[in-house]
Amino acid sequence: MNSDFHYYATYCAAQLAGCSHDESLAIAYSDCFVDLCSKTMLSKLKAPAAAATTQLPLEMMDIRTDIIGLQNITRIWSSFHFLPRDLYAEPPKRCSKRYKHKYRLICGPNGELLKETVRLAKGKSPQAAGLAMHVLADTWAHQNFAGTPSLVINNTNRYFYELFSSDDGYTEKKINFRHSATLPDDLDNSVYTRSLFSSSENSIMNLGHGRAGHLPDYSFIKYKYLPAWGDYEEVLKDNPSDYTHAFYQMIYAMKYLRGAYDSFETDAYDTEVGEEIQKEVERIINKRQLNSGDDWKALGEKLSGCEIEPFDADKYQSEYNDADKNSKDDTFLGKFILAALSQKSMVTNKIYNSGSKLAGYSIDYEDKGFKGIKAFKSLVREDKV
Question: What's the Cα-to-Cα distance from 149 to each of 48, 65, 83, 137, 270, rounded to whole Å?
Answer without folding.
Answer: 24, 9, 14, 21, 35
